[in-house]
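fold-stage: in
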Amino acid sequence: MPNKPAKYGIKIQALVDARLFYTINLEVYVGVQPAGPYAVDNSTTAVTKRMIQPISRNVTMDNWYTSVPLAEDLLTQHNLTVVGTLKKNKPEIPDDFKKKGREVYSSLFGFGKNHSTLVSYCPKKNKVVLLLSTMHNDASVNEGTPKRLSEIISFYNSTKGGVYVVDRLKLNYSVARTCFRWPLRLFFSLLDIGVVN
């Protein structure tokens, strides 16, 4: 799996509280299912909607899940706000937000319907970070800090680490034993999550 410390593994998608690091909901990714009564849609939109059933708060997500249609749907249908990073290849993003070569630590804001806010932040030369928020509706930037972070970026940075902290705690306090059977490995992983909770 790319960007992960382990070479192989079972993908578990989790909904974790950012403050308490409590795993609220999780789902094992099983790949594309054949047509039939047990077929499940594994698109990021469908997974997100299944995961958010027990909550009515803000959802902070990474660029794998974040999209403008999903954010608008969660706000209108489920009364949930979204803050997340966006991939630059999304068709909803204007070209001005993707342009490199802007002033370092500058922010460019865009406001859409349904209270969605898009911010393009330049953390270093020739790099642009895109964030989408349906929680924030203003272009406030903290000028008192050297990096001039917007309120959206500060909020995202403070709430993004729930899943990463749970993964790190699982490794530190693991009950897993060496095994080569995936059902047993999955069972040990669920036990580790239970220990962290």
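fold-stage: in (second)
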Amino acid sequence: QQEPSGAPLEDNAEDGPGRQEKVGILAKGRAWYKELFYGPEKNAVRTALGLAVFNQFSGSTAVTNYAVEVLREIGLEDNKKGILLSSGISFAKLIGIVASMFLVDGVSGRRPLLIGGGLGMSACMVLLTVGIEVKSIPLVITAESLYMLSFAVSWAGIFWVLMSEIFSMRVKAVAVSLATSVLFAGGAVANILYHVLLKKGGPLFGLFFALVSLSSAAYVYVFVPETKGKSLREVQRMFQNLGPRGLLGPRALEPQEGQRLIGDGAAKSSNSI
């Protein structure tokens, strides 16, 4: 069976001892960038890279790395006390990750958690900006802890869940490696940007990351279909049907749907005669 793009869909469940073993695109000697960005799974690859960028540019790593520095900026000179206070952020992250384990395949799914997490992180960044401006240590700690809770229950783990769900074995190794590279590179850039804005940005410090977090929720709403309970074949179909407007645009018809509509039209024409 083939999709409209002409490339066969792959499902791990169909692999058997009597079937030729699938080989990754690097082992086959193909140009990996052409396969990833112009092949049948190009939409899934682009979505994964977008998720990697938003995952880090929302400030997720920097909030933890610069928690003590933020407290120092608003007047807390005691480093030991700063480390003790910022430990609440790590505790909030632990709670969020545990909660995500039960929610991702339970009552929620991937899309609602990612969208809700992005909105929550955005609100917390605004709250953090207010806390820094009024130099309120309790408000800053609360905002950072709630931010990390929002991130941990959503983007922290679900990013890796999606990486395991949206690619066939043919491209998974290269695609996940590329997305991971973008993730860590984005984290390095976001850390530098976070520090620069903290020192010189004033209110723009938190508002920039609030806007990025808000944009991450919008990105998921438009470009990330729900994969909960779907097979690889179904997930691939959903991504191949994505147009420039993502889930907001018209869905491409699958071949069997087109044939059914043609058949229905022919039947109506014959009946009218």
